[in-house]
Every structure is written in C-alpha cells, then in structure tokens.
Amino acid sequence: xxxxxxxxxxxxxxxxxxxxxxxxxxxxxxxxxxxxxxxxxxxxxxxxxxxxxxxxxxxxxxxxxxxxxxxxxxxxxxxxxxxxxxxxxxxxxxxxxxxxxxxxxxxxxxxxxxxxxxxxxxxxxxxxxxxxxxxxxxxxxxxxxxxxxxxxxxxxxxxxxxxxxxxxxxxxxxxxxxxxxx
Length: 182
Fold this sequence. Notes:
The chain has helices at 84-96, 148-156, 163-176, and strands spanning 5-14, 18-26, 32-40, 43-48, 55-62, 67-71, 74-76, 98-99, 102-110, 119-126, 129-130, 141-146.
C-alpha cells in the first residue's frame, strides 16, 4: 500500500471521554485532505458466565442512540495506561455485582477505525463470586441472564446490535466449541 502521512493534528474539542481532532493527511497522490478523528483511551468488556452457563447481560440507556441496549458489561479505561484486564474486572463488579479471579482474554475489536482510535479488549469470566454492584451515581443498569443460544437469537433478530456484545458472545461461543486458540 502506498504511503499516507499525517501532517497536522489539531485538537478541536477536549471532552470528558473523547477528544475530537482534525487531521491534515497527505494521501498517496500527493493531495492533502482533512479527516475527523476521535481519540479514545480504550475500553474493556467482559462476557460473564455463571455456574449455569448463562451469560450476565446489562440493559442500560445509551444517549448516543437514544435507546436502551442489551449488552455485555463494559466501560472505558480510567487512563490510557490502565491495564485492560484490570478495567474489565472493575467493570464486571461495578455493573453486575459479581467479581471473578478467572478472567481470560477473548478478542480485541476496533469499534470504528474510520474515525476513532477506540479499541475494546473483550474478556470472558467464569466462576463468578457475588460481590456488590457499584454503579456511578447517574448509571442505571438492569442485570439479565441468557443462554448463548438465546443471545444468538437476539443478535440475528436485530434485538442486540451492540458490536462489542456481538463480537464477544460469538467469540465465546466459538471458544466453547474449541475454535479459538488463545
């Protein structure tokens, strides 16, 4: 592939979760074009599996799409250098009220590489230990439990449209079948 070169990176807006930049990019034909870029610290998600083999899911409001989503537990890293696994363990406990000492890497996803640096590292957790849910003051989450088959049905009927959930659950299903080599 021919060379692309970022010539300038201008911060347009510093937000509490993301920063918005305009990039001046020299493309292979020599032209200079402007690209929008959203910088994100990254996030972790976890597929929590209970003793019955059911997956704990969270149902919560998402303002960006003004809708309630059914998802695996997830959240942003506290800093750009926070370990992804530590973030996943924290989010598991905060959102579900369970913790686990049995958390394993599953898959990495870039959510929308065309315009954001956001990377979500997805884990799975087994042998869940009851703890205490620690939601933020303005966070409202309902916990639900589903079999993989029930979740898969919700994915393919378009009830679940969240990318990290789709990737995480299907990767976990593949792992259970012996398909992932981690």
